[in-house]
Amino acid sequence: YVTLQRTAERIAEVLSAAGFDAQPYHAGLDSARRGSIQDAFLASDRMIVVATIAFGMGIDKANIRYVYHYNPPKSLEHLAQEIGRAGRDDEPSICELQLCHDDLPLLQNFVYGDTPTRAAIQSLVGALLNDSNADNYHENDDDENDNGEANNETIALALTSFGNAHDVRPLVVRTLLTYLELDGFLEAMTPVYDRFRYRLIASEEDILARLPKDEPRQLMKGLLAASKKARIWFTVEAEKVAARLNVPRDRIVKALDWLAGEELVELKAEGLLHRYRRLRTADVDALTGDLYERVLAREQAELDRLAAVIDLAASKNCQVQALSRHFSDPEPAGPCGHCEHCLTGPIALEPMAEVEIDAPNWELALQLKAEQPALADPRILARFLCGVRSPLLTRLKLTKHALFGCFEAVPFGQVMRRAAGG
Questions:
Q1: What is the reported pLDDT for 152?
Q2: Sequence-separated contacts (24+) of 353-356 with Cβ below 8 Å
Q3: b or e along 110-120 (b: 16 or more beta carbons within 10 Å of the residue's beta carbon)?
Q4: In the prediction, which pLDDT does 138 show?
Q5: What gap in Å lies between CA 142 and CA 128, rounded to an integer?
Q6: What separation in angstroms does the CA of 197 have from each of 217, 255, 265, 269, 271?
């Protein structure tokens, strides 16, 4: 197991050059190649897969003999799940964790990179709860009632584009939406697809001939005319087409379903929209502060989970017993006799020292900060310097700047403290 896709590729190449049957496996590969590698691994008793955490779920192979963590997992839960894939046939297997402090900044950066800035949260909350011109679509506008409750307006979000607009990663958008649901500001509704692609099986003339000459035919004619045509496939954005034809969105979806049901087109649904009903408005500043404290607490909890992996490696007691305690499982009667601690005694990990920040690059970063107002936020500047991508940095094309990632080996927290003047 490795952390990065490029590490999977590099280690697989090294092993292959040394004569081993090794293949990389990560989310960047197309599904056909991933499936081929997985099938080959299941059929082999010698193949090595060098994988990110994209590999392993659903793998039903009892005789895995070795699991190596070239990079440490990000939590004890991940560690237990991944080493638990070895030796399911009850035969001896070996699991090894290679650990050095150089691995930690990268894993910590993933955690820090998920935490949005306070300004990003405020922008997102304002768009969700109080902004009638948010980058989503709305239905059922009514006036706010006397109790300050919202108008039960429905919001539909494409999570990735919505998050990108507010510099919040999609997974964190989901987390914030969950908080707002639990606090009674939003109510989740059934998701819908807004974008459809179809390929004609019958001609447009044949399709129209199947419909009455009145309104259904006119609707279908308008739908076909409003579809964006590529070489073979047509694209329909249901909400926009419905507005153009002045009909409810459901009419467009039903028309497409009828075409597919009659086998007149091959239809694919895309563009999932997550729908929510606004239940009440909010004091955006106060709610932003509350949500920001929650995401900071979540960030610290994730850092603590990573630290627990380091603590286990340096445990002064049997590591199997320590894992059992962590998961509240029945503890073995005594030391296991086969973990690192039981075989060789505890290992000594030196405390991680602060890495010196390169002074010339720091001066260049301050000059760039003066030119780019977005980098005034210490967290955004730290993301940029540590090489942590975000929608905002991508939009400003800063991920292509020569300074992007120049402090990749420096702990994110150290860079952010320096950026904040601490």
A1: 62
A2: 354/411, 354/414, 355/409, 355/410, 355/411, 355/414
A3: ebbbbbbbbbb
A4: 44
A5: 16
A6: 20, 13, 10, 6, 10
